[in-house]
Design brief:
The protein is mainly alpha-helical. The longest helix has 22 residues, at about 290-315. It has 16 helices and no strands.
Length: about 325
């Protein structure tokens, strides 16, 4: 190989970058992001995004939407800059709606929902959020109109179920649950298989058939092993869902065991919000059982984890 020289966007002359097509820039940016060169990725995506203001073909505008939604991810995930992240998503939505780029809308809506949810977490606003809930619902219905929308349909229903279970609001999504259950799912998409089990479990919970619900949720382990890289966030969601079921069944030992598992999975895989959530749920659960000593213990741990996260990520400005 030609030594350790690695060309990145910063070392490439600006005129060379500007001469590249939107497609070339997007793929270049993506490879930079995958190798943790966020600044270089943002430079490339930014060129594509800025071109959207000029008269462009549908295909070129589609790349601009892709660039903006990915920039939103980089700002949120890597820099915790939620304000700039939301600006990018709103601009992508504007371009998509103005130019009928309907294939992009489900991705845009789910990005908005995730971002709103994350901002609520940071602000410790754990009350039921109608905004987040409705954005996931909007994603669900939009994805049904899209030719290759099943992955977004699944992601939307997974989030709707988790939110509904946590706040005892399954009745709000019965229509969506039944629609998803009647769908012919593509079982090569791990999210779809996962969502199918979770959807059946939610319907069993709604009818208080907890044993059947547990069987469905236990079945998640099979599809977790087929998910790409066994995504740890799915394991975390599974344990959280199981906690909600055991909580409703008043099986305290099993419920607490699931929260322990949620904490372990989150710690092992550096899922910071999962860890904070586990401690928060423990605090509330012990308080509901009347165990004030343990509720106070976990309240302290929760705030410690929260403060550590805020300090590490300099996320306080997002608050």
């Amino acid at each position: 190989s030609g030594g350790s020289f690695c060309a990145n966007a910063n070392s490439m002359p600006a005129d060379q970058l500007l001469a590249m097509s939107n497609k070339e820039l997007c793929y270049k940016a993506w490879s930079h992001w995958q190798t943790s060169q966020q600044d270089s990725a943002l430079i490339c995506y930014n060129i594509v995004a800025n071109r959207a203001d000029k008269k462009q073909s549908r295909e070129e505008l589609d790349y601009a939407c892709w660039a903006l939604t990915t920039m939103a991810n980089i700002f949120a995930i890597d820099f915790y800059d939620y304000e700039r992240s939301m600006q990018c998503i709103l601009k992508a939505e504007q371009i998509a709606l103005k130019n009928n780029l309907n294939e992009r809308l489900a991705h845009i809506f789910i990005s908005m929902a995730s971002l709103e949810g994350e901002i609520n977490n940071i602000q410790q606003n754990f009350a039921f959020s109608h905004t987040v809930f409705e954005l996931y619902r909007k994603t669900f219905h939009q994805s049904l109109k899209q030719e290759n929308g099943q992955r977004y349909t699944a992601l939307a229903i997974i989030n709707l179920i988790t939110l509904a279970l946590g706040h005892h609001k399954l009745d709000l999504i019965l229509n969506e649950l039944e629609m998803f259950q009647d769908m012919t799912i593509n079982d090569t998409i791990p999210e779809c298989v996962y969502a199918k089990h979770q959807c059946s479990a939610a319907l069993f919970i709604q009818h208080q058939q907890y044993d059947s619900a547990l069987l469905e949720l236990m079945g998640l382990n099979d599809c977790l092993s087929m998910a790409e890289h066994e995504r740890p966030t799915y394991k975390a969601i599974a344990h959280e869902n199981l906690f909600f079921v055991y909580r409703d069944m008043k099986d305290h030992d099993a419920a607490l065991h699931e929260l322990e598992q949620l904490e372990i999975v989150s710690e092992q895989n550096n899922i910071k919000f999962g860890l904070i959530e586990a401690l928060f749920l423990k605090r509330d659960y012990y308080a509901s059982l009347g165990n004030t000593a343990l509720a106070e213990k976990y309240d302290l741990q929760y705030h410690k984890a929260k403060d550590k996260f805020m300090a590490e990520t300099k996320v306080a400005k997002a608050d």
